[in-house]
Amino acid sequence: MRPGSSSRSVHPVTEEDTARAVGSGDLPVLATPRLLAWCEARTCAAVAADLEEGRSTVGTRVQLEHVGASPVGARVEVTATLRSVDGRLLRFEVVATHAGGGPVVAHGEVTRVAVDAARFLSRLDG
């Protein structure tokens, strides 16, 4: 894995993506948990091609500032860029904007750790 790897996607905000729908508020605007899920999906996609067979990444830390509201119908562009690699530790910058050059909706950092998937799962109880 190398710093600079990135992934981008555009998501239309639907009724199912709102704070009201996911239980993180009562307004019909993009929910922070949904936005975070989109950001984390981009971090996974940014390094997926570089992972060896049987390896995966798990999230360990998130810092996200959700600074702008997005109504139903808005299109949100999410980009994750791998900024640093320290052994198995991966730090990503995440940025969300309204698609088409709109204002920043959110920005932050997601930290993930590369793991052997089978070994990781074998350590779980149950």
- The portion of residues forming beta strands comes to 35-45%
**Order of the strands making up the biggest sheet:** 1-3-4-5-2
Helix content: 10-25%
Q: What would CATH call the class?
A: Alpha Beta
- Looking at the overall shape, the CATH architecture is Roll
Please report the number of helical segments: 3
What integer is the average pLDDT? Answer: 96
Which key features would you list for this structure?
alpha+beta, 3 helices
Topology of this structure?
Blueprint: E1 6-12, H1 19-22, H2 32-47, E2 55-66, E3 75-86, E4 89-98, E5 104-116, H3 117-122
Antiparallel strand pairs: 1-3, 2-5, 3-4, 4-5
Q: Would you kindly provide a written description of the structure presented here, covering whatever features stand out?
A:
This protein has 3 helices and 5 strands. It is of the alpha+beta class. Strands 1-3-4-5-2 form a 5-stranded antiparallel beta sheet. β4 and β5 form a beta hairpin. The model has no long low-confidence stretch (mean pLDDT 96).
Structure described in brief:
By secondary structure, the protein is of the alpha+beta class. The protein has helices at residues 19-22, 32-47, 117-122; strands spanning 6-12, 55-66, 75-86, 89-98, 104-116.
